[in-house]
Amino acid sequence: MNTQVRIAQLVEELKMKPHPEGGFYAETYRSEEMIMIANGERSLMTVIYFLLRSEDVSHFHRIQSDEHWFWHEGSSLTVHLLGEKGHEQLQLGPIGINNCKPQQLVPAKVIFGSTVDEANSYALVSCVVAPGFDFQDFELLGRKDLLAQFPENEEIILRLSK
User: Which of 21, 26, 97, 112 would you call most buried, defined as having the most Cβ atoms within 10 angstroms of its Cβ?
Assistant: First the structure.
């Protein structure tokens, strides 16, 4: 099947919409059980499908909860982390390709973004966030601030920020 046809099929079948960080998403689960955190009450857990095309990037952002990523299909994906250790990369995809694992954890409060590893492709993943995702906890980070904080990582910052 043609890649663009498959992307369109996934977006339609999974009822996905554009995500502010880049790519497409559809929330598939939001726990009715609530938990109190510093920023107020949140669902215990949320789950989304997330689709990223190779021509797009997931821009650097940060959330206040742990986020587990689970690869489903398409190309492998690199999750880029910025933090105390500088620029780190998590490889997400089928075992045996690019040191990938089919699941990876992005710890709470870490700056991260992602890219698809193969040209003319896409990656479909699920993301499980606990405590649950809330856009009040979503921070899309700007290029100027990132360059000031991580000047040694200019190349990846220019690629994954606005």
Answer: 112
